UniProtKB/TrEMBL annotation:
It comes from Elachura formosa. This is EFC4B protein. SMART domains: EFh. Residues 37-72 form the EF-hand domain. The gene is Cracr2a. Keywords: Calcium, Coiled coil, Metal-binding. Residues 3-63 form the FHA domain. The keyword Repeat does not apply.
Length: 296
């Protein structure tokens, strides 16, 4: 038994040189030099071992099925070539095994053929029922096996449908996540764009206000310069009038009146000049503050 299993494992490794974990029809052809079988016979062996018909053999399917096949070949060779001094006697494979081992092998082969290992975690209950029918009601065993085949087929279909639904759900979740990520990126871009526009508008408004204040400051400076020039002219006229000692009394009176008027103008101008200086100081302070804010 150990030798047969070892041989089956060796054949599986010969077929699966790439280490895929399963064997296909093309991989099966690699046993042609190792076995006295034609390519057509190897194809039939593959179809026999491929109970679920999925086009590939798992290590369990290959080793279990090929072990039985190899034992039959070995028994057939023993029957054709008996040992020296013995008479060739046909011995059936089933007769070389005990009853329990035969039942165990047949049940395991049945479960592999039906694909029960993919849908059942525990085969104990099914095995007990199968053994009971085999012993007590053997004529119902085929019906029971057909029933199991239908049940496992439906379970396999349900499992496949569940896998397809899970795959579809995962795709939908991935698509939803991708859409959410896309929307999030678009929202970030929109926020960034609006922020840049807001900063640009705020900067433009600040520059416009600063230019307006600078224009007002220049205007007040010009007015102040004009008042200073006027004051200088008035002072010069007063100086000329006061220095004229040889002018007549009428002219002195006129000069006094003119001087008084000029004094009033001077006082008014001084008052305006003082107000203008105060306004200029306020404007200079505001311009300085705006300049500091602009630099920040």
């Amino acid at each position: 038994e150990i030798t047969v299993l070892g041989k089956a494992q060796e054949f599986f490794q010969i077929c699966d040189l790439e280490g895929k974990g399963f064997v296909t029809r093309q991989d099966m052809q690699r046993l042609h030099p190792e076995l006295p079988l034609s390519l057509e016979e190897l194809e039939k062996v593959f179809i026999t071992l491929d109970a679920d018909g999925n086009g590939s053999l798992t290590p369990k399917e290959f080793i279990t099925g090929f072990s039985e096949f190899w034992k039959q070949i070995a028994l057939r060779n023993d029957m054709v070539q008996p040992s020296e001094g013995e008479t060739a006697c046909p011995v059936r494979y089933e007769e070389t095994m005990s009853g329990d081992e035969d039942e165990e092998f047949q049940f395991s082969n049945l479960m592999d053929r039906l694909g029960a290992t993919k849908v059942l975690d525990d085969e104990t209950d099914v095995k007990q029922l199968w053994l009971q029918l085999r012993k007590e009601e053997p004529h119902l065993l085929s019906n029971f096996e057909e029933f199991l085949a239908r049940i496992f087929s439906q379970l396999q279909e349900a499992d496949n449908e569940k896998n397809e639904l899970e795959c579809a759900l995962k795709k939908k979740i991935a698509a939803y996540d991708e859409e959410i990520q896309h929307l999030y990126e678009e929202m970030e871009q929109q926020i960034k764009k609006e922020k840049e526009q807001f900063l640009l508008k705020d900067t433009e408004r600040f520059q416009c206000h600063s230019q307006e204040l600078e224009h007002k400051l220049r205007s007040k400076e010009q007015e102040l310069e004009q008042l200073v020039q006027k004051q200088k002219r008035l002072e010069h006229q007063c100086t000329q009038l006061l220095s004229g000692k040889e002018e007549t009394k009428v002219e002195n009176t006129k000069l006094k009146l003119t001087n008084q008027e000029l004094q009033r103008d001077l006082e008014r101008t001084s008052h305006e000049l003082s107000l203008a200086q105060q306004q200029l100081q306020v404007l200079q302070e505001e311009a300085s503050r705006l300049h500091e804010e602009k630099e920040l």
